[in-house]
Amino acid sequence: MALTLDTAVPVRERREPLPGVVHVPNWLGDEAQRRLADDFRRWSLPPAGLRHPRVPTGHLMSVQSVCLGWHWQPYAYTRTADDTDGAPVKPLPVEVEALARGAVAEAYGADSPESTAYAPDAAIVNLYPVGARLGLHQDGEEPSDAPVVTISLGDTCTFRLAGIDRRTGPFVDLELRSGDLLVFGRVNRRIFHGVPKIRPGTAPVGLGLPGGRLSITVRETGLE
Known about the structure:
Order of helices and strands: EEHEEEHHEEEEEEEE
Largest sheet: 7 strands, antiparallel
Strand content: 25-35%
Distance between the termini: 72 Å
CATH superfamily: Alpha-ketoglutarate-dependent dioxygenase AlkB-like
Number of helices: 3
Helix content: 10-25%
Radius of gyration: 18 Å
Strand order of the largest sheet: 1-2-11-8-13-6-3
CATH topology: Jelly Rolls
Number of domains: 1
CATH architecture: Sandwich
Structural class: alpha+beta
Oligomer: single chain
Number of strands: 13
């Protein structure tokens, strides 16, 4: 008798792997992803365009970044791109602000304290070329404790979570694919996290991005 292999693809479901950390697979459809990819191509142009951030030790990060609303360079926010051409940072588009508000409502509920009070004012858009990675770090330069919203486009990545008081294991690793949403807040707002691996060639066809992963991370800074 012939054996039949079960080749069904496991369903990827919304989950909360740690308190306050919410992963929503396939949150954005193909058309919404393509619009964001088109937007990124405009955001990346000078002035205050795409660049490799440099950490205080002088090391250039392997990711490339463009900022919206506030310019971030390790480890401070400014209103001008002081580590490149000094131009005023591009404004945070109202569409991105609305997307982030919808993300927090999706994660915690439209009537939650996080959702009703959320006032996003900055986005860090990171392009991970093939081979790039992001070491474990905290999003700790913002006075605000509002949730952090991350939208993934392009190649699949491993997104690693450690703890709020440690960057060592044990780790929780998530697979973030194109269109996935990740929100972290509440007790884990300042959790150490990073991206140790990108899986080349896993991006949807027709997205229009260079090889690698694009992340759009939206924050409420609490800065004036």
